[in-house]
Hints:
The structure is a single chain. By secondary structure, the protein is α/β, with parallel strands linked by helices. Helix 4 runs parallel beside helix 6. The strands form 6 sheets. Strands 22-23-1-24 form a 4-stranded mixed sheet, with helices on one face. A 4-stranded mixed sheet has the order 2-15-17-16. It has a 4-stranded mixed sheet with strand order 4-5-3-14. The radius of gyration is 21 Å and the shape is globular. The protein contains 14 helices and 24 strands. It folds into 2 domains: 7-23 and 238-427, UDP-n-acetylglucosamine1-carboxyvinyl-transferase, Chain; 26-235, Enolpyruvate transferase domain (UDP-n-acetylglucosamine1-carboxyvinyl-transferase, Chain). The two termini are 12 Å apart. Strand 20 (356-360) and strand 21 form a beta hairpin. The structure holds uridine-diphosphate-2(N-acetylglucosaminyl) butyric acid (EPU). Residues 27, 30, 98, 124, 126-131, 165, 167, 170-173, 194, 198, 316-317, 339-340, 382-383, 410 line the site of uridine-diphosphate-2(N-acetylglucosaminyl) butyric acid (EPU).
Amino acid sequence: MGEKLETMIVEGGHRLEGEVQISGSKNAALPILAAALLTNEQCVIEHVPFLSDIVEMLAILRCLGCEAEHRSDGSVVVQAKDEKPITAPYELVRKMRASICVLGPLLARRKRAKISMPGGCVIGVRPIDLHLKGMAALGASLDIEHGYIHAEALELKGCEMFLGGAFGSTVLGTGNVMMAATLAKGTTVIENAACEPEVQDLAMFLNTMGAKISGAGTHRIVIEGVEELHGAKHRVIPDRIEAGTFMAAAALSDGDIIIKDARLDHLMAVLDKLSEIGVRVKRLAPENGLERVRIIAAKNYKACDLITLPFPGFPTDLQAQFATILCLVPGISLITEKIYPDRFMHVAELNRLGANIRKESSTIIVQGVDFLSGAPVMATDLRASAALVLAGLVARGETTIEQIYHLDRGYDRIDDKLRALGAQIRRA
Ligand code: EPU
């Protein structure tokens, strides 16, 4: 996994062809790992990707008294051995915001939690008010002091709540409250719940642990509290964002790639947008039970407008990668962010490669150019880094991407997978 100073060097102009296997979903695996805190029995989570964010989450679980091992077959075996620790310290939380999702499990099982407030990050301010609102509704008392959330509840009580803010529903917030409510007394109803597949996957794991959750995947989730949860085994869903990133790679590189083990029902908005641009999308028969789709580049693409929205809309986590595609499509495309209005750190870097993008509040105006030309660029966050790697695949000459540790947070050996498809890419 990448050191902080590592760079990625991509030589543009190589056509990508072949098959790529999609790894387990980062954003499903992270809260599912946190859910193991809800029992002192052993949990086995399969298909967990090898990412630095997962390493950080396991470090937090160990700090909270768990034994946790990520085996070479991708499964994580985790068990809470000492249930006294309640603190998630700043050093760990600041490295990964998703660590906030230990709050719900700790409150429910250990009655108390002390969690460092996650800060903002380059994609925006990212408040956690909705997480706290949900916990308060369940009866927790919450204080923020010296950068830490102190939460306490001798007994959580089920209730009806509306979990929404200025930007709609919250994915991790829904998961956090859902986890807390599994052990609350009585029934909890979360209105305006996030419908993302990652929330559904978490609910499925919790139900395997003995929880009684219905409605996950809709805007109304009902959780009937139970006395106790037990150990369970679960296989994490494939990563829809990794799948979408490889689809973009095929579209950009004049490629022809078979994406293996992507859940196409999780990618409808993405496949629809690819078709609208003119990319050929062919569903293939499943192989060994795994869904497959073939993405074939075409010669002439059409400009289009794209708006990021909560699921099943187009995901914000693929906005930067699709911006890279649209940079090279003749005409003007508009991309509007409805989830993180400031998530445009990739724009200045893409412009360094010759793109013509202008930002107007939460919209970017992309004027297609004939070609990009390689240059040194700086990775600023996970998805922006992916967008720059994609740009490097088609840019003339060499693109050097600095600070690629961001990529290792969320892409399981992306360079190895791209190289296997024919890309010229190396770390230095
Ligand atoms: N929001 C609030 N208050 C809250 C929580 C969220 O106002 O208490 C706002 C956010 O600022 C944002 C919107 O609500 O404007 C949606 O945020 P959400 O809570 O849904 O995001 P998240 O759960 O913190 C997860 C993913 C993100 C992904 C978003 C949106 C994980 C670990 N992270 O974040 O993934 O962009 O959902 O789908 O699941 C990534 O993987 O690169 C990434 C950033």
